């Protein structure tokens, strides 16, 4: 689209690979007209960006064009400008192009001077960034529609909050409604099924100017995959490869649970984030830095009792390798895991009664816990010294670099032959031999 050329209500602009279309549309059950972008091989039910959200046209007389000053504009039948790109340094020879990424760009002979990706609507596409500048407070967020028939800005927004713990929030107005939990380098630890997202394509970036941003990438096979903020405040993963909205078959991800309440207990490495008192931890897991292990509450097969354990991230809970409260299970999901004021990790029931404690004798206030990629849960003091670790209190599994030991000063093998034994109670049941 070039200067003085325009698009009318009956015309659409198609991206080079026919992945996206740009044109006028009316939402279902509405006669209002909007300029939007949607997937090219599906209907307008897959709209991912709307230009004139709060200024709809009342009829089909509107046009979209590039003005003489080089800005992209939408005009009504009376030639009144209802939406403009408002680029202050635009030049007269600009052109507009819809890319196969879904990004609408306005460019001069040398560079892009405006793009729709920097003015998001309700949908997050691959390589689009949501961001917050820690110094200026400037934010780039998604905003929900008011309802399915009304694209105007609704109650909910999604963006990055870098204060204290960098994570993504859904806000209802100015109030936090949901948060993803902290970013551990690969996933947001509070989002269900995020490990199964295509290619684990999310990333968090920090630039030198203080901007923190979240985005995702995906392969060419999944260019039809995106995330949308619904009018009800749910962030949903959508795949438009078929006409109907569908699960992508690799792991549907939806940010829609109750607001998480988290507390940070470390300042380096793979931090341990635990819900503070009076909140459930049942639906949340702590992930080691390289995502090898997870720590959380679980119930064994054919049991409703709840335990705190460590297991391999892949494939399932059947790989639990350490259990904290083996002999004192919780009877419901009201338990919490926390660090006490004297520096001990605790598991408490709903009545705030301690059912398990590390009982570290050399603990210190302000201790922090960390789950390592070795599967070891460690407690550190302010100097970084380990004051307690789970591999010194083994459960039923022997991991690499974990030691099973006997102090020979207090327990002498009468045969004086070092070997490993299985005992059944106090009776030898099997031995490895010397």
Structure characterization notes:
0% of the residues lie in helices and 38% in strands. The strands form 11 sheets. It has a 4-stranded antiparallel beta sheet, with no helix packed on it. The model is unreliable at 242-252, 257-283 and 410-414 (pLDDT under 50). With 434 residues, it is an all-beta fold. The chain folds into 3 domains: 6-118, Agglutinin, subunit A (Orthogonal Prism); 123-255, no CATH class; 267-392, Orthogonal Prism (Agglutinin, subunit A). It is elongated. A hairpin with a 5-residue loop joins strand 21 and strand 22 (235-239). The chain has no helices and 37 strands. The chain has strands spanning 6-8, 12-14, 20-25, 34-39, 47-50, 63-66, 72-75, 81-84, 95-98, 104-107, 112-115, 123-124, 130-133, 139-140, 142-147, 150-161, 167-172, 175-179, 202-206, 211-216, 225-229, 235-239, 254-255, 262-264, 273-275, 286-287, 293-298, 307-312, 320-323, 336-339, 345-348, 354-357, 368-371, 377-380, 386-389, 421-424, 427-431.
Distance between the amino and carboxyl termini: 83 Å
- How many domains make up the 3D coordinates? 3
Write down how many β-strands occur, each being a DSSP E stretch of 2 or more residues: 37
Radius of gyration: 28 Å
In this structure, how is the largest beta sheet organized? 4 strands, antiparallel
Helix and strand content put the structural class at mainly beta
Overall geometry? elongated
């Amino acid at each position: 689209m070039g200067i003085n050329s325009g698009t009318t209500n009956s015309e659409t602009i198609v991206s080079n690979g026919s992945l996206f279309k740009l044109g006028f549309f009316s939402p279902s059950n509405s006669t209002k007209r909007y300029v939007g972008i949607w997937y090219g091989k599906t209907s307008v039910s897959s709209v991912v960006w709307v230009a004139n959200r709060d200024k709809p046209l009342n009829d089909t007389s509107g046009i979209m064009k590039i003005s003489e000053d080089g800005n992209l504009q939408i005009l009504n039948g009376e030639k009144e400008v209802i939406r403009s790109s408002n680029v202050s340094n635009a030049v007269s020879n600009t052109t507009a192009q819809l890319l196969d990424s879904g990004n609408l760009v306005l460019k001069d002979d040398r560079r892009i001077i405006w793009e729709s990706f920097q003015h998001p609507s309700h949908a997050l596409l691959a390589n689009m960034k949501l961001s917050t500048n820690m110094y200026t407070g400037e934010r780039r967020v998604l905003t929900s529609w008011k309802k399915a028939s009304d694209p105007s800005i609704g109650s909910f927004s999604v963006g990055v909050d870098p204060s204290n713990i960098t994570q993504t929030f859904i806000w209802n107005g100015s109030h936090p409604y949901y948060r993803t939990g902290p970013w551990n380098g690969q996933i947001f630890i509070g989002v269900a099924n995020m490990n199964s997202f295509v290619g684990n394509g999310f990333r968090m970036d920090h630039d030198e100017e203080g901007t923190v941003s979240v985005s995702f990438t995906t392969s060419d096979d999944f260019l039809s995959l995106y995330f949308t903020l619904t009018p009800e405040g749910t962030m949903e993963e959508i795949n438009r490869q078929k006409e109907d909205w569908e699960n992508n078959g690799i792991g549907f991800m939806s940010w829609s649970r109750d607001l998480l309440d988290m507390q940070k207990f470390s300042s380096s490495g793979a931090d341990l984030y635990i819900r503070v008192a009076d909140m459930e931890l049942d639906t949340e897991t702590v992930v080691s830095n390289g995502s090898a292990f997870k720590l959380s509450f679980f119930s064994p097969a054919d049991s409703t009792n709840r335990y705190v354990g460590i297991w391999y991230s892949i494939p399932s809970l059947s790989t639990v390798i350490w259990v904290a409260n083996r002999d004192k299970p919780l009877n419901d999901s009201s338990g919490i895991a926390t660090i006490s004021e004297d520096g001990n990790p605790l598991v408490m029931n709903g009545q705030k009664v301690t059912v398990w404690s590390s009982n570290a004798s050399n603990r210190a206030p302000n201790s922090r816990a960390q789950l390592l990629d070795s599967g070891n849960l460690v407690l550190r003091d302010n100097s970084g010294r380990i004051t307690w670790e789970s591999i010194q209190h083994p459960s039923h599994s022997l991991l690499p670099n974990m030691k099973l030991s006997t102090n020979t000063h207090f327990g002498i093998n009468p045969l004086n032959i070092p070997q490993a034994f299985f005992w059944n109670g106090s009776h030898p049941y099997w031995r490895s031999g010397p």
